[in-house]
Amino acid sequence: MERVAFSISEFCDRNDMSRSAAYAEIREGRLRARKRGRSTIITLEDERAYNDSLPVIDPASPSRYSMIGRQARVAANERAAKAPKRKPHGPRVGQRARRGK
């Protein structure tokens, strides 16, 4: 017999998701949850609806997340190029100053 409802922990294990991410999805209204006493449960029907609502990735287009990472790297490189070059003020932490002989 197939189970029809799961605890948050079981749902997270089944869907490779953290508890905080699951609660965030519930708060945003993307994942429907129910209360059974003090326990929060997610029905199999709601789990399937949630998974069916996730975006489908087109393999021909670049991933949204890889583009975000690329944009962050480009922005960081641009900031580094514009930043004035600093001279070191002394020995590195943990090193002694060298004295000429």
Summarize the structure in words.
- The protein has a domain at 5-53.
- Helices cover 46% and strands 11% of the residues.
- The protein has helices spanning 8-15, 19-27, 44-53, 64-82, and strands spanning 5-7, 34-36, 39-43.
- It has a three-stranded antiparallel sheet.
- Strand 2 and strand 3 form a beta hairpin.
- The termini are far apart.
- 5% of the residues are buried.
What descriptors fit this protein?
101 residues; mainly alpha; three-stranded antiparallel β-sheet; 4 helices; 3 strands; elongated
Briefly characterize the structure.
46% of the residues lie in helices and 11% in strands.
Low-pLDDT regions: none
Structural class: mainly alpha
Percent of sequence in beta strands: 5-15%
Straight-line N-to-C gap: 85 Å
Series of secondary-structure elements, N-terminal to C-terminal: EHHEEHH
Total helices: the number is 4
Shape: elongated
The helicity comes to 40-55%
Q: Count of DSSP E strands?
A: 3
Main β-sheet, spatial strand arrangement: 1-3-2
CA gyration radius, whole angstroms: 25 Å
- Largest beta-sheet details: 3 strands, antiparallel
